[in-house]
Amino acid sequence: MPELPEVETVRRALALELGELRVLAVGGRSTALRRPLVVERLAAVLPGRRFAAARRRGKFLLLDLEPPGTLLCHLGMSGRLTLDAVSAPLLPHTHLVLRLEDGRELRFVDPRRFGLLDWLEPGAEAADPSLARLGPEPLDPAIGRWLPPRLKARRAPLKALLLDQHLVAGVGNIYAAEALWRAGVRPDREGRRTALPRLERLALEVRSVLEEAVAEGGTTIRDYAAPSGNFGSFAVRLEVYGRQGEPCRRCGAELRADVLGGRTTAWCPHCQR
DNA sequence: CCAGTATCCTGCAGGC
DNA sequence: TGCCTGCAGGATACTG
After folding, report:
1. Are the CB atoms for A84 and A124 separated by under 8 Å?
2. Which of A144, A176, A179, A194 is geometrically suited to a Cys-Cys bond with A162, CB 3.0 to 4.6 A?
3. Nearest in space to A202 (alpha carbons), one of A212, A216, A187, A223
4. Å from A103 (CA) to C5 (C1')?
5. Which nucleotide is closest to the Cα of A154 by its C1'?
6. A201 is a catalytic site residue
7. DSSP class of residue A42?
8. How far is the CA of A93 from the C1' of B15 (A)?
9. Is A6 annotated in the active site?
């Protein structure tokens, strides 16, 4: 669900809202998330610690605390972090509740349970199985130099390659489709059969679509919301995602949808070549 | 190593 | 109205 811009939006909101607040208590119920969520483990380390910084790596959120340690978080498809008054009713599928010293609670809600929460001791980050193999950040201004050769080395469809977090970290189904449309490149084209200048163009479009979405607070389609309850406004600027059957805004041709790398991809058969 | 598929889970829209 | 099916913004284990 949330891709890089949505996670970045959450990160910024949390950095602002959490400040250096102390965690007073930990609640919730252990459950099977992507990694097992063991509430007792978090209850043993979090109380007494203060939030110190909120970082993002790809679609992962890293909340640093003091004394040092990091709460690793991934929102999966349906995960949300919310800040609520203690008195606010608990939503169904609330897995973790952190009671804060200002009277509010940081809550993790995730109906589909594809997300994850984990505690990382200082130094454990480099060895974390999810973080260790992540590709570079797509907001890097140098993306035009390192992404094209990586794509060129593979024969899978470009759409599938953009979703591979080991090649570039943070692109998901929405922005992959949008970047391909902006670059005028067919999503089913093989990496190795695409000319380098076109791959460079694609890399730059990946960066710019993500940057624009970050500036708008992300895309809200179904159940994504920032902790404050605000919604991103990028949805109105989507050119292909979810628009199959509708006319291409560039050439008027009917947009179609195909499954690539197991994910539905909308694209324009006329202006994407 | 690479590419493709199956799988985890719930909610919801659409068809009947 | 209810039931059923398929699909959803993700990551990864597995197969060939």
Report:
1. no
2. A176
3. A187
4. 45
5. B2
6. no
7. H
8. 29
9. no
Contact yes or no for A130/A114 (Cβ under 8 A): no
What's the pLDDT tens digit per position in A35-93? Answer: 999 999 999 999 999 999 999 999 999 999 999 999 999 999 999 999 999 999 999 99
Q: Is the CB of A112 under 7 A from strand C?
A: yes
Which residues in A123-142 are b (16+ Cβ under 10 Å) and which e?
eeeeebebbeebbbbbbeee
Domains of chain A, CATH where assigned: 4-120 (3.20.190.10), 143-267 (1.10.8.50)
**Helical pair A173-183 and A196-215, crossing angle rounded to 10 deg:** 130
Q: Distance between CA A105 and CA A24 in Å, rounded?
A: 10
A3 is known as an active-site residue: yes
Strand C reaches within 7 A of the A227 CB = no
- Catalytic, A2? Answer yes
Instruction: For residues A182-205, give the mean pLDDT.
Output: 98
DSSP A243: -
Q: Is A28 within 7 A of strand C by CB distance?
A: no
